DNA sequence: CATGTTGCTGCCGTTTCGGCAACGGCTATA
DNA sequence: TATAGCCGTTGCCGAAACGGCAGCAACATG
């Protein structure tokens, strides 16, 4: 099912690999063939598509425009293929997800497991990275669905849903704070805390609040892994900060306690966005998973709001 | 700039013309070439794309799926072309509009004239037809922007905006009703009326109301042209019904009077929708006109609401 | 200076494409 | 019922496009 000109595919491969010879290796063709197709494309467009550096190729402005078009074509071709396949009852394909770490503890594994239980032929690729990298993966067409902190997103992405979760302190069962219902930042800073490094969005949520306090915070542990911070908290090393999404299992076991943060009477929100390339129609099997993801996150948001009503 | 496989274009032409030989004439190639490309496509997809009738070809289900993909590709190619062209400052292209008759009197000619004044290189194609035909034109990719009565629209279209206008009676200056501020349907039916035929949406707006009345309406003139009905009303032949959009010029001349309909104390709304194919990004020059169209219709809606506040 | 990598270009065999003419199937018309 | 006019398809053949191979100059790295 390759009814698109080879030039399209070659261009796409060159853009991804950043080099003609590398693209040729991936495509299993001679590099001369790839080179010629690119030259032919540039001749037809009437403008160079790549800047030739000694170390490889970089897209020009026109090249980026063509890349956008080619991505639209290839992604829509994927959707067409899945549409045809689903006619004969074969629901198969790969859902590619890029997301931040908060989801890896329970949300994503639960969802994927349950989805695979129903649709065995659908496979998954997941990549965990920072929020801005998630958005970039989507823009570059390397992922189908992205979950990231809801910052400003580029116009070529569409925010499918926005869910807000309370940021809270996470402490071991035996921690002096564990009996409280909510905590303030000051109360936490009286104990050793496990701080997020700037690459985690939690840092940017808490830093402005910490800056407002008069006291200098206790010397603390710093980390860039939510998983690690959670495990440290479980071992009683200190107070960690994150949303309830990441401590589902351990809090059910009773090892960890989640205490919603109370900042001068109002909650501290962590906004989670679900993103998709705007200029694109998802294949049926991808869209199906997306719907479940949105529903599940909505459900968790609702449950959390019920458990910790945003009192003032 | 033809970097897409000929099969794509041939398929598109065959779908539009409904025949291989007709497509070949349009494409200036031998019919055998077209036939072969179609056969090759069907072989690659693994399923027939057309049903061969004696009189030509009809799309199969898989064929319609491919048609959707091909339309997405070709329309996005158009956008890419315009993006590249706008880099060199050349804003040129053709905006294709399908709309219902209500817009032809002032909205559309005003907008097109003013837009052409600013962007000389942008040309227009407009086709006036019934609401359902407008939507179909859009779905088939024969128009870029559609304006129709806001009924239920197929899922492959996106409603960019929804504007509501009051339906009213239109009478000549000398008509006995002309002095009133508003009129009820009963008051109108006391005079000869110019009725819309079922092909016009006005018919479907008024028919349910007329059916509720006890009296049998006066024998009346029936027509399927808003233009004709307006001119008949201007000549004092009877009372016509339409929105204020269509009588801009003649009411400014004082020849015609617009009287908002009052149906048991509430207005009768005529909902106008602006539509675009959902799976598509418009070229810059088309989007620019679309924005103006939405703004202008919003402006008229606002002005009309100010002139005839929806009293109860 | 040697080595490795990059993109590009003749040369040439293979594949694909398109034009021409002819065939069988069908419809409408005389 | 015969005929003329469509229709899509197929064999044949020249032309164009494609891809592989080997070699080129330019540049970076050690």
TrEMBL record, chains A, B:
The keyword DNA repair does not apply. Residues 1-60 form the HTH lysR-type domain. One of its GO terms (molecular function) is DNA-binding transcription factor activity. Keywords: DNA-binding, Transcription, Transcription regulation. PROSITE patterns: HTH_LYSR (PS50931). The keyword Cytoplasm does not apply. GO terms for cellular component: cytosol. Belongs to the LysR transcriptional regulatory family. NodD regulates the expression of the nodABCFE genes which encode other nodulation proteins. NodD is also a negative regulator of its own expression. Binds flavonoids as inducers. This is DNA-binding transcriptional LysR family regulator. It comes from Bradyrhizobium huanghuaihaiense.
